[in-house]
Amino acid sequence: MKFTHETLSQRVVFAAGESPAAVAAEVETLGGSKVMLIASDREKELADPIAKEIPVVLRHEEVVMHVPVEVVGRALRAAVGAEADILVSVGGGSTTGLAKAVALTTGLPIIAVPTTYAGSEATNVWGLTEGETKTTGVDGKVLPASVVYDAALLTTLPAEMTVASGLNAMAHCVDSMWGPRADPIDRALAQEGIRALAAGLSAVADDSTGVEGIEQTLYGAYLAAVAFASAGSGMHHKICHVLGGMFNLPHAQTHAVVLPYVLAFNAPHAPEAEARVAQALGSGKASAGLAALREVLDAPRALRDYGMPEDGIARALGPIMKAIPANNPTPVTYANLTLLLQAAWAGEPIN
Questions:
Q1: Where are the beta strands (DSSP E) in the chain?
Q2: pLDDT tens, position by position, 151-160
Q3: What sign results for the dihedral spanned by CA atoms 251, 196, 185, 104?
Q4: How far is the C-alpha of 15 from the C-alpha of 92, rounded, in Å?
Q5: H or E element: which one contains 323?
Q6: Long-range interactions of 210-219: CB distance < 8 A, separation 24+
Q7: What is the Cα–Cα distance from 254 to 178, expressed in whole angstroms?
Q8: What pLDDT was estimated at residue 350?
Q9: I need a surface site. Which of 10, 79, 171, 299 has the fewest CB within 10 A?
């Protein structure tokens, strides 16, 4: 073996039903005394018990999908005005993303409390959208110092969002098999992440309030994010970032739709990755295993269902081609990328 692997430094706390006390302990550990609590009004009931246990000087509720730069500007001004010395985010990927954007400029530490399976809380990747263009980057300042996973906060997550968010996490795992910096450690983490996500999501599909299933899914989502942070953004995420920013598509659903098409596209030229994914899904073939899981979960099927225009395929081709890593397992051309996007747009069956 010959590779270089970097493990990111972060405290991770699993504390089902105990997030208020756990977050308070993390604030104290980090020396915070003026908390900017970022949580949308949709997350108010989940954030309120946490707010009671920590020294909040500002509650910020403006959270917008894909983290528009103008929203970030208002959050930055609020943080500076309140003289906040620490950020606590309670919510999904958009909430964590806004906290990261504030931290990118201010350097303030983040305590992330996820309420979905987005995984952004475990990466040093930031993303901002200006107009129709989504820009991403890597910076140590945006990696949350602590993550508090509380399964009890996800017992009310709607079934549709649970499925989409969980498959978004699985996309992190699959991309980590062949991302631009993927190494054997990333692949091992990603394989275990896929196993845990498949088991957890199947359990949650039977009982959406079951803490054990939610914890398995959170565990898988965390492993997925750790692997992804190291391996880097592969073909799948480059496609989804372009489409999401260009057409304002819902983040998790877009990932859930595109995933099986990218897996089928790359698997023939990545036999080790294909075998790992298949084994993790308990199937003889990776695509078949994912298809079976998606059937159980009634997963999102077509980009057109989420507002992508058909003529958007041609518009997206150029930006996607520029973004896809050169070491993608299957060589990408305008022709085969067009076929992939057309299939994902229509929700066509995968052969």
A1: 11-14, 35-38, 56-60, 86-91, 110-114, 125-130, 133-138, 146-149
A2: 999 999 999 9
A3: positive
A4: 18
A5: helix 312-323
A6: 211/16, 211/17, 211/151, 211/152, 211/155, 214/151, 214/154, 214/155, 215/14, 215/16, 215/149, 215/151, 217/117, 217/154, 217/162, 217/166, 217/169, 218/14, 218/114, 218/117, 218/149, 218/151, 218/154, 219/14
A7: 20
A8: 87
A9: 10
Q: Distance between CA 236 and CA 260 in Å, rounded?
A: 10
Decide: helix, strand or coil at residue 144: coil
Q: Is 119 in a helix, a strand, or coil?
A: coil
Please, how many CA atoms are within 13 Å of residue 163, restricted to the half-sphere of its CB?
19
Residue 288 pLDDT level (bands cut at 50, 70, 90): very high
DSSP letters spanning 230-271 = HH---HHHHHHHHHHHHHT--HHHHHHHHHHHHHHHHGGG-H
- Using the Cα atoms of residue 287, residue 298, residue 342 and residue 324 in order, give the sign of their dihedral: negative
Q: In 3D, which of 160, 180, 145 has the Cα closest to residue 10?
A: 145
At 165, give phi and psi (nearest 5°): -65, -40
Tell me the DSSP string of 266-289: HGGG-HHHHHHHHHHTTSSSHHHH
Buried b (16+ CB within 10 A) or exposed e, 48-87: eebbeebebbbbbeebebbbbeebbeebbebbeebebbbb
Taking the C-alpha atoms of residue 334 and residue 340, their distance in angstroms, rounded to an integer, is 10
Structure tokens, 269: 């030229």
Residues facing residue 38 across a β-bridge: 60, 89
